[in-house]
Amino acid sequence: MNSREIARYALLTALALALSWLESLIPLPGAPPGVKLGLGNLVVIVALYRLGPGPAAGLSLVRVLLTSLTFGNAYALAYSLAGAAVSLAVMLGLKRTGRFSILGVSAAGGVGHNIGQILVAMAVLRSGYAAGYLPVLLVSGVSAGAAVGAAGGVVARRVRL
Fold first, then answer.
1. Using CA atoms, how far apart are residues 18 and 128, in angstroms rounded to an integer?
2. What is the CA radius of gyration of the chain?
3. CA distances in angstroms from 132 to 16, 108, 116, 135, 145, listed in the order given
4. Which distant-in-sequence residues (6+ apart) come within 8 Å of 145 by Cβ?
5. For residue 1, what is the DSSP state?
6. Fewest Cβ atoms closer than 10 Å to its Cβ: which of 10, 29, 91, 136?
7. Residue 58, CB-side half-sphere exposure with 13 Å CA sphere
C-alpha cells in the first residue's frame, strides 16, 4: 500500500468516525431505543461502490472498533461487530447480483445490521424474546438504510477516491 492509499483510508476512517460522533449528537425524538441513522455507514457504502469489497470491509471494521472504543463498551462492540458483519455480507451479496441500486443495497444492509444485533441480544439474554423487537428495527433499518443509500449514491457519483 502506498502513502496515497494510506492517506485515503485514514481520511475515510476519520470521516466515518466523525459521522458516527455527529450522529450521537442528533436527537431522534420519539425514536425507539437503539434506533440510529447509521451515518458512519455512508462512508462504507461509498467505499463499497468506489473502492470495492475489501476496502469497504476494512473501513467498516476499523470504524466499528474505533467508535466502540471511543463512545461505547464491550457490549457496544459485540453488537456493532455483529451488525456490521451481517450488513456487509448482505450488501456484498446484493451488489454482486447487479440487480439492486445502491439505495436497495444500503436499505438491505440496514436490515442486516439490525438482524445481526438482534442475534447478539438473543445470545446475551439467552432468550428469543429480543426477536420481538425486530419489527421495529426492521422498519428503522429500511428507512435509515435507504436514506444512507440515497446520500451514498449522490456522493459515490460525485467523489473520486
1. 34
2. 15
3. 31, 19, 14, 7, 21
4. 38, 41, 106, 107, 108, 109, 110, 111, 113
5. -
6. 29
7. 13
Q: How many CB atoms lie within 10 A of CB 157?
A: 11
Residue pair 47/12 in contact (Cβ under 8 Å)? The answer is yes
Question: What does pLDDT average to over the chain?
Answer: 94
Task: Convert the pLDDT of each residue in 19-76 to its tens digit.
Answer: 999 998 888 888 888 788 999 999 999 999 999 999 999 999 999 999 999 988 899 9
pLDDT band at 111 (very low <50, low <70, confident <90, very high): very high
- Taking a C-beta distance cutoff of 8 angstroms, is the pair 39, 89 a contact? no
- Taking the alpha carbons of 5, 22, 44, 156 in that order, is the dihedral positive or negative? negative
Q: What is the pTM of this model?
A: 0.93
Query: Any idea which residue has 466502540 for its cell?
Result: 68
